[in-house]
Amino acid sequence: EKGGYEHFMLKEIHEQPKAYRDTMRGRMNAEGNKVILPELNLTEEQIKNIRNIQIVACGTAYNAGLVGRNLIESLVRIPVENDIASEYRYRAPIVTPETLVIVVSQSGETADTLAALREGQANGAHVLAITNVVGSSIAREANSVLVTLAGPEIAVASTKAYTSQLIAFTLLGLYLAEVRSTQSEPEVAKILAAMQSLPEQVEVILAQKDVLKAYAEQIAVHKHLFFIGRGVDYAVAQEGSLKLKEISYIHSEAYAAGELKHGTLALIEEGVPVIALATQESVLEKTVSNIKEVKARGAHVLAVTHEEHKDDLLRSVDQVFVIPQTLPLLTAALSVVSLQLLAYYASLALGHDVDKPRNLAKSVTVE
Ligand code: F6R
């Protein structure tokens, strides 16, 4: 049932190209310049009236929402907030009938996320669920459901569900952009074309897993490490950090690269590994100066970036992992795969139960 893989997690990491294709299938027109989402029970008028969006979820699904915010704000220019589901209700969120609440849940059964859905509906908002389980409680109660077609996810650490959520957010962002005319047809076509290359680009990363395994074995001897990045790279850093903690039990923190010098830099000592996500051209120079700050304190830095920035980065870091070139908006769907593999191999090197990490359950139905 593990299809020849040692663990479900590794199998599921390898199923991502298929999950991307399945989640995209049938959701764009033949010309490749329009997204079609008939499952959204929102009229054009309702979409045009959306004033704000709240994305609510837990754990990895929350982290997917961070990327979702970046996508939607860039594509549609509607203000988006991210909320942890267990916090949402208690902060008395400002929800109106012009708010779109998006709940994200692989299982569709997470108690706090379900409660957030009900909170949104009680305030008159349309609640759109992004979920992997069609018959789940969240899918049944939501006003609209955008299904991710990742297939069953068995490993406790979520991988293909997260990346399929990124695909779903991209499709949703493009659809909202069409209705609200915030992106031109050629722009949409360009993004859709780039999305269709993602599955084979993931394969390119998977083919380099030995490089990540070797790096994982290097970091497995450390007690603490850091992930840094800016913008969407920061969102991915948060997911990479969660994945690593969850299954390898190595303590790590994700920091917005520019925030380090406001305190955390004190924790960087000789040899501490820092994984720097540096895929965003527009802030690359800034990220590089943050990398130099940690290098100056003795950190051992691995940068994840594109080929075109490799040589540049090699001047300031110890190692570079190259991911295939895509649009800045879509890099998360590639860079995160390298961090999933890193977490997997670190857990393996430490001899932990990769698929069933201690103290965690696949579906959390208590608040
Ligand atoms: C981490 C992980 C958890 C879940 C979280 C939400 O790898 O799997 O953080 O993402 O418990 O679960 P769902 O998405 O089922 O609501």
Automatic annotation (TrEMBL):
Record domain SIS: where: 43-182, 215-357
Keyword Phosphoprotein: no
Active site residues of this protein: 362
Superkingdom, natural source: Bacteria
Catalysed reactions, semicolon-separated: D-fructose 6-phosphate + L-glutamine = D-glucosamine 6-phosphate + L-glutamate
Subunit structure: Homodimer.
Keywords from the named record: Aminotransferase, Cytoplasm, Glutamine amidotransferase, Repeat, Transferase
Residues shown, of full length: 244 to 610 of 610
EC number: 2.6.1.16
Protein name per the record: Glutamine--fructose-6-phosphate aminotransferase [isomerizing]
Keyword Transferase: yes
Lineage: Bacteria, Bacillati, Bacillota, Bacilli, Bacillales
The protein's role, per its UniProt record: Catalyzes the first step in hexosamine metabolism, converting fructose-6P into glucosamine-6P using glutamine as a nitrogen source.
Subcellular location(s) of the protein: Cytoplasm
Residue intervals passing through the bilayer: none
GO terms for MF: glutamine-fructose-6-phosphate transaminase (isomerizing) activity
